[in-house]
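Sample 3 of the quickstart, ligand nicotinamide-adenine-dinucleotide:
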Amino acid sequence: MSRTIAITGAASGIGAALAKRLTSEGHRVIGVDVQKSDIEADLSTAAGRKAAIAAVKEACGGVLDGLVPCAGLSGLPNRAGSILVSLNYFGTIELLEGLRECLARAEAPAAVAISSNSTTTTPAGMVSEEIVATLLAGDEQKARAMADETGSLAAYPTTKTAVARWVRRHAPTPEWVGQGITLNAIAPGKTATAMVAEGRADPIIGPHLDKFPIPLGRDGKPEELAALLAFLLGPEARFFVGSFIVCDGGTDALTRPDDWPAPPRPKA
Ligand code: NAD
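Result:
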């Protein structure tokens, strides 16, 4: 059965690989990106997000089978943290919230957000719990100012942690699974896309990028992440709700084998 799936960041990398795969399987993809896409919008601005939501609603006729908000930027020494707050977090969460009503009208709808294994593998202290809380409270301006203080290298795992927590908090609620929408997050490890090429070209972090251990011995391929996303969007994944799925060639397991699974933390 042909389904209609909206993908942000569809012009490159993981989003493009997913769009190619779904299209080849006979599905209809509505691509959203700042460049070269069906709907062109800057998701790092409130106006761009609003326009993108309206355009997707119109394109899908109010019924959407799947949504993958994939657009994102990495941390770089000369990139402000604030843009990651607006794009990686609000560009994901506002699209999920804004298109939820269209998903709810579909048969077996699914949404998958893109977190990152940087959430669990970067050194302790990189992820600011204060900024995570500010993001989850929806205060974009305050979070932008805080992230500009920390810089984008720290803002990256911080925004991706907040995305994962938002998914975990919302997936099991009446608004999401109660409407039949499965919501999950994937956490890719280093994957060979334009994002990583950009990091490799950076004179400061470039030389360190490939020192990050990947037990499998290579970077991920965008097609491998697309395969996981396609599965999570499909009919055989209906029992996945609020899952945080690491797909990283073994880096997370190598870095912290005994941290998880773990029983719930005592409530403060
Ligand atoms: P990519 O750079 O190939 O693709 C990112 C896409 O986002 C591009 O098409 C770009 O045009 C779009 N984009 C950038 N700014 C935008 C804006 N303001 N508005 C709308 N679109 C915008 O990168 P990728 O690796 O495919 O990344 C996809 C997702 O996967 C991102 O959320 C990223 O954080 C995440 N991720 C990537 C890796 C990795 O190693 N590549 C690892 C973990 C998570």
